[in-house]
């Protein structure tokens, strides 16, 4: 019989038959392999011809070669570069800090000259009431006409650049005497606001947050209440205010969960604890202990330690507050003893704030003063302050709690209703601020990166990109009056926002190379800016992730397992570090394996450190070209030329008259020499002029292709595009815009396809990692169905014919997927038979043909639904074998910023607390329960509570929570060009051939489909797996290196508390008494 030309005659012995069959099988496989190689060669040749022709890659390579002798290649000195960038950022930050210092001086002088008048009447511009009229058309009180005009520097919001406005929280009376007096003397800040803005036009919002609760904001802008008519914003619980007003602190929160705390009291207690957590920042440490007859750590995993008060940890504890329930008897002595021991032991570890210490006591009463415990653990130094919060209206045990506060340098307050919580909780901040005030230490503080969506300016999206990520510089304002100086009165805090995008403007992206980037972190190791930081999610990326502001550097540079880079930067060192990195790109579906060199140093005057990453090879080299200004400008003004929107060629934000200029217009104005105030990057402009001249011939070349319509009669090729190392791009359409298959490509909506402030386009980055002269083909993952899909083909243009040559540019085309697939199927029908009859082709039912890329994604398959899918989902058995043979390798990636869907059975306590109906019902339930509790305490309450619990569980819902995930990516082995293999599927032998497409990143895979291997070998899918829940405890316990703030003000020897009455306290081991001055009690 005949097997594809191999004639077999079975008349010999068994051994001969076996050898002959082996020979026949090898011949068949070789025949298939040769045929697949023929198809691959034919398809590769045609696609390279089309791609090179329409992209103009050979012409551009030739043009750069012509300028080779006029070009100077330089190796980038990474350490020198990062130091220069740090100096530029230091100068920018210093200007912001100086503006705040001028505000502090003006505020303190204005307050010094002001005499408090309880009867003062003063009409000010209330941020909510301005331009509001009554039914008769007259301005409402505290309103009045306030001129507002759109301003592009403030995101086109309508503002007043001459005046500020005053916002008063909804729960405060806007004509209260203290507020009116504060507003009156702080009017003096208007002149300084305006002066600061004139000195530094890059400033945005400036403000003064008063300790009385009002908020003065410049420029003036109208505030609008939410749908409930409420403005929840209170400047005093903003991070910048708290951080500037107080020193770092270690806090233990004790929550009474005895039987008397049932009902509304426990609800108020939960909200009180939550509000205390709001006042803690990244430099603080805390834990929460509930007590009755026993101690109950709210998070049992953290028994006996404190954790950093970052957003993630605070949210984790909030989730556990709902699980508290009241029963039994409160044993406060046990709780206080545990709290003192916990603070002492943790302080000895050296991991905490090593500054202030406090115990927050949330209870409905204390039967004793517990002076023996205080004498043992806290006297005479009284290093731990006690802040009791009496829950409920009863005052029977108030005296004991007042005594505790005053005997331990604390503050007592009583909270009767939910509405009292926020105002009363914040009182302790004024106590902790007093040592700093008496020391007159105007510490400049910088916050971590955050988004404050409660402010009106944050409601407006930044150029449609999403909420603005920013840091705030703030300074405290003190009373300098002689009569109040030793009482340490904090007047408030001044601050200004610095958008993170402002930092990126100082970074010359063209100096960092294609894969290079700059990043900055805080003293806690949290990211201030990094291209891999993803703070937003959801449709349009407009929702903040819960833990977006506390993403650690180790969570994005995760290959540094020992935190060598992170710890060096946290400790403000200067140095270098190297490691291999796996960069996830294209929505996590692809991976680039690079070797990065890191350079880092500190930014003086701030808690930040700066780093620069440069990839080895072409990423370490830069070249300078030289052309005349005249020829450069001529070619820069071509209509097909665009410059990177987010790169700073000229600083058009510095002066108002420049803000309407495009970057090209600004460059022309700068080169004209008529505008000395316009600041531009001279070196970048010189290089962009050079690139404009070298790439100019492409315009005429592409135009000639468009005019010769027969060249592209089926309109398969739609766009040709070019990008250079200076952010210059050129685009040519071969079809009219309405006929484009992918309308978003190379537009602002295509984030990964254009030059951004912190990265080159994806097609540029992938082309740079290909062998010179080859094209990288891919399906964009943001396209729709196959009828709408396109294929991108791009290649890099090297300056020199050597490995270390810089990449000068990248060019490419966009073509229809249908056009691309037709070319593949045509090539796969070719054969070398003289009669034209092929014994094998991709049309055969017995084989399946696929075209996959170097990451394993299908571009062409007979089943069109597989287009864009991972090859392992279609042919899992074959993909497994390719991995075993080394044709592909699996790379494990980690995402520490992921969000996972979980089912939550707990009620939304935040919502119910804000619901007035629920609050009223809770109050009535509490009153009725208290009336009959002595008769049916357990039966009544259990019935009532279980009903509410059942209701809460019915409200359970699916929600997204932060989680860690690991997921696979796959990459081909460059050195293996072809391979063959066999699979044993229950006795059926399945063979396949894989062949690289020449001059590309593609592979043709031909699979014998006679055998069904679905039930013997599993499918390989690109699915992610969340880390085991048991690891959460270890993550909570883990405390990475951090650098404490440089200043600490826990106490002051001259601190004299306001006297209202005196008590005498016997001290242990002392034969004398001393007098403590007692704080005024706020009810």
Tell me roughly what share of residues is in helical segments. 25-40%
Going by helix content, strand content and strand pairing, the class is alpha+beta
User: In percent terms, what proportion of residues is strand?
Assistant: 15-25%
- Per DSSP E runs of 2 or more residues, the count of β-strands stands at 42
Tally of separate helices: 28
Rounded average pLDDT:
84
Q: N- to C-terminal separation?
A: 104 Å
Report Rg: 35 Å
Largest sheet: 7 strands, mixed
Which spans have pLDDT < 50 for at least 5 consecutive residues?
1-11, 459-465, 783-787, 906-923, 929-955, 1056-1083
Shape: globular
GO cellular component, one term: voltage-gated calcium channel complex
Subcellular location: Membrane
Protein name: Calcium voltage-gated channel auxiliary subunit alpha2delta 3
Coiled coil: 82-117
Plain-language structure description:
The protein contains 28 helices and 42 strands. The chain has 1083 residues and is an alpha+beta fold. The strands form 11 sheets. Strands 9, 10, 11, 12, 13, 14 and 15 form a 7-stranded mixed beta sheet that branches. Strands 6-8-7-18-17-16 form a 6-stranded antiparallel beta sheet, sandwiched between helices. It is globular. It starts with a strand and ends in a 6-residue tail after the last strand.
Q: What key phrases describe this protein's structure?
A:
1083 residues, Ca_channel_alpha-2/delta, ion channel, disordered C terminus, globular
Helix and strand arrangement:
Layout: E1 2-3, E2 6-7, H1 14-55, H2 57-66, E3 72-75, H3 78-113, E4 149-151, E5 157-159, E6 165-167, H4 177-186, H5 189-199, E7 206-210, E8 215-218, H6 239-245, E9 249-256, H7 264-278, E10 285-291, E11 295-297, E12 307-308, H8 311-321, H9 332-349, E13 356-363, H10 371-377, E14 384-391, H11 398-407, E15 413-415, H12 421-425, H13 427-439, E16 445-446, H14 456-459, E17 470-478, E18 490-499, H15 500-504, H16 509-512, E19 517-521, E20 527-529, E21 536-537, E22 543-544, H17 564-570, E23 575-585, E24 590-602, E25 609-615, E26 621-624, H18 629-636, E27 641-643, H19 663-672, H20 682-695, H21 697-707, E28 717-724, E29 728-733, H22 762-768, E30 776-778, E31 790-798, E32 807-816, H23 817-827, E33 847-853, E34 858-861, H24 871-874, H25 876-885, E35 888-904, H26 909-914, H27 916-954, E36 957-972, E37 978-985, E38 988-996, E39 1002-1008, E40 1025-1026, H28 1031-1037, E41 1062-1066, E42 1073-1077
Parallel strand pairs: 9-10, 9-13, 13-14, 14-15
Antiparallel strand pairs: 1-2, 3-26, 4-5, 6-8, 7-8, 7-18, 10-11, 10-12, 16-17, 17-18, 19-20, 19-25, 21-22, 23-24, 24-25, 27-29, 28-29, 28-32, 30-31, 31-32, 33-34, 33-39, 35-36, 36-40, 37-38, 38-39, 41-42
Helix pairs in contact: 1-23, 3-5, 18-20
């Amino acid at each position: 019989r005949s097997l594809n030309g191999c004639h077999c005659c079975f008349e010999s012995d068994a051994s001969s038959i076996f050898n002959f069959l082996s020979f026949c099988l090898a011949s068949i496989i070789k025949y298939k392999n040769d045929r697949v190689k023929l198809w691959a060669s034919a398809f590769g040749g045609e696609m390279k011809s089309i791609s090179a022709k329409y992209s103009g890659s050979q012409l551009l390579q030739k043009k750069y070669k012509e300028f080779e002798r006029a070009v100077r290649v330089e190796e980038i000195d990474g350490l020198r570069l990062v130091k220069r960038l740090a100096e530029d950022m230091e100068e920018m930050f210093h200007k912001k800090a100086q503006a705040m210092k001028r505000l502090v001086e003006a505020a303190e002088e204005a307050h010094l000259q002001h005499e408090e008048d309880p009867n003062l009447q003063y009409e000010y511009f209330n941020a909510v009431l301005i331009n509001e009229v009554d039914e008769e058309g007259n301005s409402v009180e505290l309103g009045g006409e306030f001129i507002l005009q759109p301003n592009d520097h403030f995101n086109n919001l309508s503002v007043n650049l001459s005046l500020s406005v005053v916002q008063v929280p909804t729960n405060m009376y806007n004509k209260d005497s203290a507020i009116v007096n504060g507003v009156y003397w702080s009017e003096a800040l208007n002149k300084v606001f305006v002066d600061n803005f004139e000195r530094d036009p890059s400033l945005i919002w400036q403000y003064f947050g008063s300790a009385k609760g009002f908020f003065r904001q410049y420029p003036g802008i109208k505030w609008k209440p939410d749908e409930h008519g409420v403005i929840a914003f209170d400047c005093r619980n903003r991070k910048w205010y708290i951080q500037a007003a107080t020193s770092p602190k270690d806090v233990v929160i004790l929550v009474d969960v005895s039987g008397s705390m049932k009902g509304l009291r426990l609800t108020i207690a939960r909200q009180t604890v939550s509000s205390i957590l709001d006042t803690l920042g990244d430099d603080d440490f805390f834990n929460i202990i509930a007590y009755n007859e026993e101690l109950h750590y709210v998070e049992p995993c953290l028994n006996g330690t404190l954790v950093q008060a970052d957003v993630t940890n605070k949210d984790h504890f909030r989730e556990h507050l709902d699980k508290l329930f009241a029963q039994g008897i409160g044993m406060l002595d046990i709780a206080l003893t545990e709290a003192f021991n916990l603070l002492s032991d943790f302080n000895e570890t050296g991991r905490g704030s090593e500054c202030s210490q406090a115990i927050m006591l949330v209870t409905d009463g204390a039967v004793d003063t517990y002076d023996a415990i205080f004498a043992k653990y806290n006297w005479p130094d009284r290093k731990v302050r006690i802040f009791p919060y009496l829950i409920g209206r009863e005052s029977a045990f108030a005296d004991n709690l007042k005594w505790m506060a005053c005997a331990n340098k604390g503050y007592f307050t009583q909270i009767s209703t939910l509405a009292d919580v926020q105002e009363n909780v914040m009182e302790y901040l004024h106590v902790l601020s007093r040592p700093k005030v008496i020391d007159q230490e105007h510490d400049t503080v910088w916050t971590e990166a955050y988004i404050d969506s409660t402010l009106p300016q944050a409601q407006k999206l930044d150029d449609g990109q999403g909420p603005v990520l920013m840091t705030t510089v703030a300074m405290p304002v003190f009373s300098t009056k002689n009569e109040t100086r030793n009482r340490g009165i904090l007047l408030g805090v001044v601050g200004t926002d610095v958008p993170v995008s402002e930092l990126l403007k100082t970074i010359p992206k063209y100096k960092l190379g294609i894969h290079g980037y700059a990043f900055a972190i805080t003293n806690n190791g949290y990211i201030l800016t990094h291209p891999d930081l993803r703070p937003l999610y959801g449709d349009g990326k407009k929702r903040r992730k819960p833990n977006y502001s506390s993403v650690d550097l180790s969570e994005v540079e995760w290959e540094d397992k020992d935190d060598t880079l992170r710890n060096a930067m946290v400790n403000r060192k200067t140095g270098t570090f190297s490691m291999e990195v796996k960069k996830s790109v294209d929505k996590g579906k692809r991976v680039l394996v690079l070797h990065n060199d890191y350079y880092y140093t500190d930014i003086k005057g701030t808690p930040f450190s700066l780093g620069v990453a440069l990839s080895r090879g072409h990423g370490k080299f830069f070249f300078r070209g030289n052309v005349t200004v005249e020829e450069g400008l001529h070619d820069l003004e071509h209509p097909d030329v665009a410059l990177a929107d987010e790169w700073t060629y000229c600083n058009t934000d510095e002066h108002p008259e420049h803000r309407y200029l495009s970057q090209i217009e600004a460059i022309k104005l700068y080169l004209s020499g008529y505008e000395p105030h316009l600041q531009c990057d001279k070196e970048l402009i010189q290089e962009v002029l050079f690139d404009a001249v070298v790439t100019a011939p492409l315009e005429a070349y592409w135009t000639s292709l468009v005019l010769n319509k027969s060249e592209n009669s089926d309109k398969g090729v739609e766009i040709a595009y070019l990008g250079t190392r200076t952010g210059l791009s050129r685009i040519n359409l071969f079809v009219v815009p309405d006929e484009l298959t992918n309308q978003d490509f190379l537009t602002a909506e295509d984030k990964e396809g254009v030059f951004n402030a912190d990265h080159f386009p994806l097609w540029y980055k992938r082309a740079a990692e290909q062998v010179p002269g080859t094209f990288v083909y891919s399906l964009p993952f943001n396209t729709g169905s196959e009828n709408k899909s396109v294929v991108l083909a791009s290649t890099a243009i090297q300056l020199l014919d050597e490995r270390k040559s810089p990449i000068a540019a990248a060019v490419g085309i966009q073509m229809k997927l249908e056009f691309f697939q037709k070319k593949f199927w045509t090539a796969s029908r070719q054969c070398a038979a003289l009669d034209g009859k092929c014994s094998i082709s991709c049309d055969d039912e017995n084989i399946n043909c696929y075209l996959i890329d170097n990451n394993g994604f299908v571009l062409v398959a007979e089943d069109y639904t597989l287009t864009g899918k991972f090859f392992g989902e279609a042919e899992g058995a074959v993909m497994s074998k390719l991995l075993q043979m080394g044709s592909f390798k699996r790379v494990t990636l980690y995402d520490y910023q992921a969000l996972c869907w979980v089912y939550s059975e707990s009620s939304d306590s935040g919502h119910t607390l804000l619901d007035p109906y629920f609050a009223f019902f809770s109050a009535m339930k509490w009153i009725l329960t208290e009336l009959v509790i002595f008769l049916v305490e357990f039966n009544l309450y259990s019935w009532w509570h279980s009903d509410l619990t059942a209701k809460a569980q019915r409200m359970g819902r699916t929600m997204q929570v932060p989680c860690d995930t690991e997921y696979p990516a796959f990459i081909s082995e460059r050195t293996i060009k072809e391979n063959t293999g066999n699979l044993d599927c229950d006795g059926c032998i399945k063979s396949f051939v894989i062949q690289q497409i020449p001059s590309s990143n593609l592979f043709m895979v031909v699979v014998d489909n006679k055998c069904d291997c679905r039930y013997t070998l599993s499918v390989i899918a690109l699915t992610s797996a969340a880390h085991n829940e048991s690891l959460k405890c270890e993550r909570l316990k883990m405390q990475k290196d951090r650098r404490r703030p440089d200043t600490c003000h826990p106490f002051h020897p001259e601190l004299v508390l306001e006297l209202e009455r005196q008590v005498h306290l016997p001290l242990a081991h002392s034969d004398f008494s001393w007098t403590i001055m007692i704080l005024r009690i706020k009810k």
